[in-house]
Amino acid sequence: MLFRLFTRRMRRLGCYRMGPMWKALLVFVVIAFAGQLLGILFNKSWVQPERPRSLFSIPENNQGPPLGSCRPQKHIMFLKTHKTASSTVLNMLYRFGEEQGLRFALPLGYQFGYPLPFIAQRVKGYRGPHVAMFDIMANHMRFYKPEVEKVMPADTFYFSILRDPVALAESSYAYYKNVAPAFRRSKGLGDFADNPNKYYDPRLRNNHYARNLLWFDFGLDHNANYSLALAKRGEAAVRRNFKLILISEYFDQSMVLLRHALCWPLDAVVSFSLNARQQISKSRSGWVGKAAAPASLQLTEEQRQKLREWNALDWHLYQAFNSTFWDEVERFGRARMDTEVTLLRSRREVLAHVCLRDGGRPVEASRIRDRAIRPFQSGLVKILGYELQPGLDNATRQACLRMIRPEIQYKDLLDLRQFPHAQPRPGAAVVTNELVVKKDSSPHRTEQHAGESLERDWDGTLLVHNQSQEHVDIKGKLR
Ligand SMILES: Nc1ncnc2c1ncn2[C@@H]1O[C@H](COP(=O)(O)OS(=O)(=O)O)[C@@H](OP(=O)(O)O)[C@H]1O
């Protein structure tokens, strides 16, 4: 019937003198074309990324507005800057990679030899330049592009995240109070801001946490004297190397841009804030109120301004990329952005309701019954985590767990999956549930081992001093 119709139409079009061979070929082309068309209409995975085995069976159309004909990006390098919400972003990358069976470039310990500039040998299982082995790289490092390029495929998508340097300084001071000598010596952040030069010695290890920390993480000289020309050169280097720079203060808008840049489904960028510090409120519940900072972190407006000046290179970077960020939002469309942010937030609320106890409120580590998901603690304040809703079915529980599993534990899990037969190296600090809540009270201990000098860094990282005095973190703790 269809064939008869088709031949009649062909006759009308003047195709009388076709031989049987040509006719057969034409029929074949038409059938193939119709097949493609039906495939496009009915196979959504062509137009939308395949939804990872995700939390709950929700209809496809709840995965956010369609993304067009893009393909999900699977080669990703995220520069995990410090105290910028980067652990929340890392969690999303871990989840997506795990669900899609991607391979992670993981550090031997928990960061890639930080604070030394990145070298490819820090990647576990690295076999040499341009051996395409890894899909995602995202743990803390001091960025150094030529070495990163040895590890990651040429079509890798590079992105990172920035935060207002004043907020970042508060977070960094709270977290690294006992780690950065400049912070340790001052009475409080306000005192430090009033006269940073009194406390800051650029030669002392870990003082990079106290000055232009973003600039440092991007691999630039964070102690350089500020000049506009220098700041613009640094900014240009970041622009050259990174396709997208997110802004922590606009986290949800950032996630929308990221989702579109990576062509990912909505669930992949829905997250719960990880690594938040507890801030004591005056209310009876005694819980988090961002306004109520402890006395040692309180700042006057003048001190805030001084911190901007002290971190002038970071301040420049932040302002420049904040402006670029809003240009991107403009290009994306304000109304469209608002719609997608609303969708993202409502999805987060649904997931919080399903997954988390107490309506999703973060709690202090000691109150988390499952010790395996307690977050690592450091500094002046308590770092909060989450408790899972009891009584979840196994699949939901696993999906929820992924969203709240702290960075250290998640890295260990992926490491074990990728290297199931690897033996821990001699001297390696094995992460136990106890260790993740332990504060290291005696930083910089030194021991002798097999002719080498071993030193424990503030976070338990085992550093080996060999003859060239290079520090190698074998395995230790984060940050
Ligand atoms: N979604 C979202 N939006 C905005 N801010 C967020 C988010 N998730 C985490 N955070 C805040 O980020 C701070 C922790 O940053 P990091 O995870 O990068 O820290 S670390 O360097 O890995 O230790 C930490 O900041 P402070 O609470 O000010 O210390 C977190 O509260």
Automatic annotation (TrEMBL):
CC annotations in GO: Golgi membrane
Keywords attached to this entry: Glycoprotein, Golgi apparatus, Membrane, Signal-anchor, Transferase, Transmembrane, Transmembrane helix
Membrane spanning stretches: none
Principal location class: Golgi
Top-rank taxon, per record: Eukaryota
GO BP of this protein: glycolipid biosynthetic process
GO molecular function term, any single one: galactosylceramide sulfotransferase activity
Location in or out of the cell: Golgi apparatus membrane
Membrane topology category: Single-pass type II membrane protein
InterPro entries: Gal-3-0_sulfotransfrase, P-loop_NTPase
Family assignment from sequence similarity: Belongs to the galactose-3-O-sulfotransferase family.
This protein's name: Galactose-3-O-sulfotransferase 4
Species annotation: Silurus meridionalis
Lineage: Eukaryota, Metazoa, Chordata, Craniata, Vertebrata
